[in-house]
Amino acid sequence: MRSVGSWRRLAVAVFTLAVTTSSPADVAVSGRVLDLNGEPLKQAMVTVEPGPAKVGIAAVTVFTDDTGAFRFPGTIANVSAGKLPVRASKLGYRQSDVLSEATGDGVALTILLAPSAEQAGIAPASAWLRQIPSQEDTAKIIMNCVGCHQTPGPEVRHYARMVRDVPSADPAAVRQQSWSAMVKYMNFLSAEEFGRGLVGAAPIQPDRVYGVTDEDAVTKVLAKHLVGDFQSVQGYAWGAPLAVNGQTVIREYAVDLPNNVREALQLGDPPRLWAADVGSDNIVAIDIATGRQKIHTIPSPIPVGPHTLVAGQDGSLWVAPFFNGVVAHLDIAKDTWQVWPLKTPDGKDIGIHDLSFDVDHELVTDRKGRIWYSDITNNAVGYFDPGTGKAEIFRVPEHPGRPAQSAALYGLAVSGDRSRLWFSQLGIAAFGSFNIDTLQFETYETLPMLDAGPRRMAMSDNDILYIALYGAGQLLEYDTRARKTLGIYDLPDRASAPYSVTWDNLRKVAWVPTSNANVIYRFDPQSKSFTVLPLPREQGFLRMVGVDPATGFLATSYANISIPVHGPRMAVLIDPGDGVRQATPRGTERKGEQR
Amino acid sequence: MIRGFRLQTPGVRRLAGYRVAMALSAMVVATATVAAETEGAALVQQRRCHGCHHATQTLLGPSYAAIAARHGANRATMEQILARKIIVGGAGNWGVVPMVPNEQVSDDEARIIAKWILRQQ
Q1: What is the pTM of this model?
Q2: Can you list the domains of chain A with their CATH numbers?
Q3: Which residues of B touch A182 (CB under 8 A)?
Q4: Do the chains contact at B104 and A158, CB–CB below 8 Å?
């Protein structure tokens, strides 16, 4: 539940360290992280954040190796006034001290961490939520609240404290009234936010997608569980081994406010991160090396609200909108746009969410050259022909026993032979397939928990479908050829709210970014096990992960919804540090007859 | 830009300066009052106050008219208190439900909104 209130960031203390240089300079930074017995701490996170950057590289993060050593790549540029803001963190520890020693071209640090049971500021919002014993209750909160903001994020915890502090002989009644009011207020904000996309047309029904439809049930769960002062959290564990090493590097790029960064991916030479700003018609191109940015505005006759980004197989960029029918394509080398404002043949509006993509998460057409999409507004799949602009949609039949008003078609994936679309229906815990040749819906599967929350999906090179289950905190693995579920795996943190899953065709693993736990999970289909890639930022609300084939880097974003929510809106580039990459850059690889 | 998506911050400082200058003339004071009225009403919409408050009806929070009726006699003091309450939120005056904090509202904007509310009798 989002509140727009003040809150106190319980971040890891930032030690501002005087280094030997007194004027701004480029400084090489290395060092070790030790406990108070002088023992090395491996896989500790070390971040240098020169200052509150409006634009550019906001922070660089590395991790310690088995000997506790770390080294930042290159130099930290232009450290101001001889100060080096560095922080180290590791679950179960608090930063105690930072010692420095000048080296030839910079500084060697010894960062001391002291054991600490208190994890506030280090553990994610999910650390509180996972204490709820009932997964049904957890799922209800995730599906109704975390879709827009971490819960309980700092604003929610602050409001929970305000509710607790109301003098009353009946605190339970105060909680009931207060969270009821909050749910109504959030529905108001949601309706404002999501009801705006279609210009000059009938507004969509926001309740169908992101509103709280069952106010009483959600209020009851919130009033029951959001009790206490939320100042302290203990006992959180990642739940699986960390997927980081001494070569892992995370770069976070600030985008000038106001922005509403949604998704980001890596494209181009020189390599750039391309971030969609859903609050405008802008795509922000960020030079990875320098952090310099260029805004590319989509020349659309109606507002787009760029939401979904998909790389073209030729290295171009495809953009899908926010609850309307505008698809845009950018030739990034020529800086030229093509825009398709789509409607159905009978003039109906389309609410595109996902575009059809292949095993490398690059745009793929069907065998007739048509691009397919999920239509969240009409609970449909559809196509458009980029040559003619013709579009058509096919509505999913109602499913008995599932509430029709909640059935919004959300995620999309395409079979390797391009004969079938697979889709998810977020609000009714269903997924299924559509035959592109016969234009008929075929398979239809439902999950037992209505709040399971199947979101963005991915298809492996063996036609294994992966679905992130947002509310259930699980990953579903489904064999689309045999039409059977291979497994439903609990994530290491079931309150993590996995937004999506990306098939990594280089590593043959699935990446699962989370909205509520500041981590990306890595799923190995061979061992059916997870490892954890932690992100260095509180309220790191993740959505998609893209894999750049040339570098093996992961691109993602912190994508908090809407201006009233505090928390970062950044593009993020991750070198997992495993050296996996391929020799052929995107756009030069031949893919036979895929397009 | 998508209509109604970004919260537009009006030129509050520019407007305040404008109003000071205009106060030199009684005629223009009237103009400024109209401007302040417009500004206050616009801010109430832009800052989404109308999600919880209505001109005359109790919604999640008290109506503007009720607030003005209770505090109109003590306008000078209550302008400051109300402006602060808008930003930090809190409960205690109108029931047990705490008002959400609104940190995205600036001090200047909160003062304009508070003044506007206290005129809504």
Answers
A1: 0.89
A2: 4-115 (2.60.40.1120), 126-225 (no CATH), 252-341+491-581 (no CATH), 362-412+419-477 (2.130.10.10)
A3: 100
A4: no
